[in-house]
Design goal:
547 residues; alpha+beta; 4-stranded mixed β-sheet
Length: 547
């Protein structure tokens, strides 16, 4: 490859990786991890029951990610979000380094590897936030490298499986995918070696590694209970997929999924081409690729594991089959450079929507203003039961506990509540029954641009059809008072259970968001006082400026 083309390829690959690694933090689950870390440091023990919610307080909770939480909490206390942001970049750099070593193991020439890193970075973009999964991807890549190195005849220490999986099991439950990977190699290599005693002895290494790895996973505070949680996740994944996007299937309609489709289809095509040309395709990594491909197609969150397998295998197959020769022709150089440039452009395109290179933490997905309002009014509202959407519970619990207890957050113990709440949103009457049944006093809801056609009845009994925001019917004004709103959130108080004077001081009876048509109709018919509306609008502007 010419020096100029090589520089372009490296530059595009570095840009793609940098954009992926330095994408700002926005993961809502980070905050309940930080809450757990705070709890661990306060109690000098790992929590075993819920303490953050009023719906599950005291219920058993298996905190199988406790060590990740200790790491996150320590880093946050030392340097806040910038420290966590830098740490996740280091984890991704470690995963990329393992990928590079695996590409080398798969006989991918050095000139081709930057394009592989660029593709991996684009496919990894959706999972590049700070989350315990990053530890799993790092460990999964290391296990894959070790299995491939052993399959190719290199010396690999079997006993390393015990400490690796013991550490992994205390960081994240993704160790299950590591066990699956070792099990696939053990089964396939044993089947291949059935006719040879010498080969059977070689295959026994994989079983020994599997036994040590499985034993290592039990060296954590919860023992076999972690496997029970894994079983519960597997049981619930189908019912939760409609409500948690990362548990859903790959979709061509979602641009976030496009790199995953490229990796999925490209790796299968590369494997088919290699099998056709060389007819000596290795069964163990191929079986692992097929199984991981099937699971990542069904559940997007598993795509990071699949990319860790698929990218080095695909580039290895293309290199050994001659499609990507060690000394590539001009059109191959152009193709590799174009792939890297396309991946970098994709990463920067999406990254620009999330503050890439502008901030360490993107707070657009957290109800910061509503949380500040609740903090300011904790003396009056402390003890009131608060409903909150699934994705906001982690932030609210981290910021407001112990003055408020949340309804739900991202932990598995709230899966049934997530489904219950989601089903209730289909009908205003069902939603009111849900809030009544859960004894909700304050309801924090999204200020979403969702509208319904409805009739506004005038004082003289006539009516007019208008386009009105969803909350008008879901949170009827005679029962619920809107006491705070901003571009993200709406906060309602139940009139029957909350102090009347407090509601009167904070209610927005006229200056209600997205209800412009109804307000204009009321003003035209002199049914509301313009001076009172103006006063509410001024109060709202002042409130939004209040820290």
């Amino acid at each position: 490859m010419s020096r100029a083309a090589q520089r372009c390829l490296w530059a595009a690959s570095a840009a793609a990786f940098a954009g992926c690694a330095l994408l700002p933090i926005s993961n809502p689950d980070l905050f309940w991890h930080l809450s757990a870390s705070r709890r661990i440091f306060a109690l000098h023990a790992i929590p075993t029951v819920d303490w953050l919610s009023f719906t599950r307080v005291g219920d058993p909770w298996t905190d199988f990610e406790w060590l990740s939480q200790v790491v996150y909490g320590t880093l946050y206390d030392a340097g806040g979000f910038p420290q966590l942001w830098a740490f996740k970049a280091v984890l991704l750099a470690g995963a990329a380094l393992i990928l590079w070593k695996t590409l080398e193991l798969e006989d991918v020439p050095a000139d081709h590897r930057p394009a592989a890193v660029a593709l991996w970075s684009a496919a990894f973009l959706t999972r590049s936030d700070i989350r315990p999964d990053l530890f799993s991807v790092l460990a999964f890549g290391a296990v894959f490298w070790a299995l491939e190195a052993r399959r190719q005849g290199r010396r690999v220490r079997t006993y390393a499986a015990l400490p690796l999986f013991a550490l992994w099991a205390n960081l994240h439950a993704g160790f299950a995918y590591g066990l699956m990977l070792v099990g696939i190699y053990a089964a396939v290599e044993t089947a291949r070696a059935a006719a040879s005693m010498k080969a059977l002895k070689a295959a026994a290494w994989y079983w020994y590694a599997l036994v040590l790895a499985a034993a290592g996973t039990l060296l954590q505070p919860f023992g076999w209970k972690t496997y029970k949680v894994l079983w519960m996740h597997g049981r619930d994944v189908g019912s939760l997929a409609p409500y948690i996007s990362e548990w859903g299937a790959l979709s061509f309609d979602n641009p976030w999924h496009w790199p995953a489709w490229v990796v999925l289809l490209g790796s299968f095509a590369a494997g088919a081409l290699y099998a056709r040309r060389r007819k000596d395709i290795a069964l163990a990594p191929t079986a692992a690729l097929l199984l991981c491909g099937a699971t990542s197609f069904q559940h997007v969150r598993l795509g990071s594991y699949f990319a860790t397998l698929a990218v080095p295998l695909a580039f290895g197959w293309l290199s050994r089959s001659g499609v990507l020769p060690a000394t590539p022709r001009v059109r191959v150089r152009v193709a590799l450079a174009s792939l890297s440039a396309a991946c970098a452009a994709y990463v920067f395109w999406w990254g620009s929507h999330f503050g890439l290179f502008q901030t360490a933490y993107d707070d657009r997905f957290a109800p910061t203003g509503a949380a500040a309002f609740l903090e300011r009014n904790k003396d009056e509202a402390r003890g009131l039961s608060l409903y909150n959407p699934w994705g906001w519970g982690g932030y609210l619990g981290w910021r407001l506990y112990p003055d408020y207890f949340v309804f739900q957050d991202g932990r598995y113990i709230f899966h049934s509540l997530l489904i219950e709440a989601a089903k209730a949103t289909g009908d205003p009457a069902a939603w009111q029954a849900f809030l009544e049944g859960r004894s909700v006093d304050l309801a924090l809801m999204e200020n979403a641009p969702a509208y319904v056609e409805g009739t506004r009845t005038h004082a003289d009994g006539t009516g007019v059809r208008l386009r009105r925001p969803y909350y008008v019917s879901f949170m009827p004004k005679d029962r619920w008072a809107l006491i705070y709103w901003d571009e993200k959130a709406l906060l309602f108080a139940r009139r029957a259970t909350v102090d009347d004077e407090w509601i009167h001081a904070h209610e927005y009876a006229l200056a209600r968001p997205r209800d412009d048509q109804a307000r204009a109709d009321a003003l035209a018919r002199n049914e509301i006082d313009p001076a009172r509306l103006a006063a509410e609008l001024r109060r709202h502007e002042t409130e939004l400026r209040t820290p």
